[in-house]
Amino acid sequence: MRHKKHKYKIGSNPTHRQAIIKGLALDIITHGKVKTTHAKCKAVQPYLEKLITIAKNDSVANRRLVSSRLPKKDVVKKLFSEVSPKYKERKGGYTRVVKLADGRVGDNAEMSYIMLV
Questions:
Q1: C-alpha of 53 from chain center
Q2: Measured distance CA(55)–CA(34) in Å, rounded
Q3: What's this model's pTM, rounded to 2 decimal places?
C-alpha cells in the first residue's frame, strides 16, 4: 500500500525535485520570503520546518546534520545564529504560505509567498 506517500510533482525526477527544495530552503533562510508556485511552497514547507526544529538545539551533531542537508556554510551559520533563536519557545509552524490572487503570466500557475513567521 502506498498510504501517506504523496509527493508534489515539481520536477522531472526525484533528484531534480530534491534540488529545487534545497534551493528554495536556502533562499527562504537567506531572504526571509520567496515568491514561487503554490506546489513548490507546499513541498518545501515540511523540509524547512524540520531544519528549523533541528537548529533550535545548537550542538555539533545538529550543525553537521543540517550542513549535510544544506550545501552552503554561511546559510547554516545564519540558520543557527539568527533564524532558530527566534523560535526557541515555538513548538512548530515556523513558515506561512500566502496565496496570491493572480496567476503567473505565462501559464497561469497559482503563485504564493512562503515566508518565515
A1: 12
A2: 21
A3: 0.90
Give me the domains of the chain, ranges plus CATH numbers.
Answer: 14-101+108-116 (3.90.1030.10)
Give the length of the chain: 117
The three cell numbers of residue 53 are 526544529
The residues, ordered by sequence, that sit 6+ positions from 26 with a Cβ below 8 Å of its Cβ are 70, 71, 72, 75
Q: Mean pLDDT over residues 62-77, rounded? A: 96
Torsion of CA 8, 67, 55, 115, to 10 degrees: -40
pLDDT tens for residues 9-38?
888 888 999 999 999 999 999 999 999 999
> Which residue type sits at 70?
L
What single-letter amino acid sits at 95? T
